[in-house]
Amino acid sequence: MRQAEKGFADIIPVILSGGTGSRLWPVSRLSYPKQFLPLISERSLIQETALRIAPSYGFAPPIVVCSEDHRFIVAEQMRQIDIEPAAILLEPQGRNTAPALTAAALVAQAAQPDAVLLVLPADHFIGDEDGLRQAVLSALEAAREGYLGTFGMKPTEPATGYGYVKPGAAIAGHCHRVERFVEKPDRATAERFVAEGYLWNSGMFLLPVAAYLREVEQHAPEVLATTRQSVTEAKQDLTFLRLGPSFRQAPSISVDYAVMERTDKAAVTPASVGWADLGSWSSLWEVGDKDADGNVVQGDGFVIGATNSFVRASGIPTVAIGVDNIVVVAMEDAVLVVAKDHVQQVKDAVTLLKQDGRSEADTHRRIYRPWGYYQTLHMGERFQVKRLTVNPGGKLSLQKHFHRAEHWVVVNGTALVTRDSEQTLLRENESIYLPLGSVHRLENPGRVELNLIEVQSGSYLGEDDIVRIEDVFGRV
């Protein structure tokens, strides 16, 4: 029997996609964090998350909460896997998980007052996806009785990087009341917790929406008041729901601190589903496919005489020789080498680079836009060379620049170029010059990707030298 037949229809998944992923630098960066990257499979983490609770299993379409800066990435990645979210909520500012989840709960309640929310971070790994859906079924009875459910993962080791939850008395189904939550312990405490039957706190929840909002009102009233006002102020923007400015006033607090650790209705469902939160390079090594010497090697990485190491390279061949227990991550613009037992300090490296004014701390060379992406190939005095890739049907804004001229050369595909009052169709190896101040637009009218080389020249080449006159993505 497919799980679609077992009563998931009143469960609305909520996917929280607000993380910046600095602990997985240099692959994950603020402009394109880890949930949008294919770290485990050919799909991104958020795509894997959405697919494991897809409408094909009987769940309602998901609500996704994300940063305004990531809205087009989320929409495109959902389109690629044929999932149409019920809503994509845009946070004007990240305020942690309690305000994000509460805003989603208010939107869900307006559509379905008796809904149950299945809350999933966008960046977790689940090895046994059928097991996760079975755990949801096990927790459903307690949720329908008004309990706020969390999923406790059975520990495979006394990990110090996770919070713990202690199950108490048994209640409906396979659930237990939560006796206590505990923050990340030291090693000796973690060993005792495992021996005493504590579970890892996964950060995944099953919440009856009405009961959850009552508990927020009781234990975190300011969270509810500010997010409710922001939903009242929300404006539809294309396929997105842009939360209002009151959201910025919400306390920055996690749902664990705001509600779960304060309510007397917390329940936990024990599960063993091959879970990891992928919060560090060592966690990616743990879930990765290892060779006979315990190495995980990805992309253009190679090893000789290495053991228990993680090597990932993109664009440049990277060889690790005779090393043990290290992480090597090589990108075209940055390289990380760190001992596996020091990976929690990677975020300190990001802070160091920011203090030094290095753009590599936050941005990749490849910058994604709703129409495709561009990538800087070379920069010099008063010039810059970029590659532009425009998706089929993609259309850039009608724009002009005050400080630079541009020359476009089509590598492959077909380009429809507007230059002031004229339109020109360009094909492979054809080019066009756009003088400083000209009003112009680039479109891809074809069915395959359009790739072109853009040569910019002028006194200032920053991305903020764009005056958008018209834009199908509402960025004017």
What's the quick description here?
With 476 residues, the protein is of the alpha+beta class.
Helices and strands in order:
Layout: E1 11-17, H1 45-52, E2 63-67, H2 71-80, E3 87-91, H3 97-111, E4 116-121, E5 125-126, H4 129-144, E6 148-153, E7 164-170, E8 176-182, H5 187-195, E9 199-208, H6 209-219, H7 221-233, E10 235-237, E11 240-242, H8 255-260, E12 266-271, E13 275-276, H9 281-287, E14 296-304, E15 310-321, E16 326-330, E17 335-339, H10 346-355, E18 366-369, E19 372-380, E20 383-390, E21 398-400, E22 404-412, E23 415-419, E24 422-426, E25 431-434, E26 440-443, E27 450-458, E28 467-470
Parallel strand pairs: 1-2, 1-4, 2-3, 3-11, 6-12, 14-15, 15-16
Antiparallel strand pairs: 4-9, 5-13, 6-9, 7-8, 7-9, 8-12, 10-11, 16-17, 18-19, 19-20, 20-27, 21-28, 22-25, 22-27, 23-24, 23-26
Domain Mannose-6-phosphate isomerase type II C-terminal: 357-471
Pfam family, one: ManC_GMP_beta-helix
Family: Belongs to the mannose-6-phosphate isomerase type 2 family.
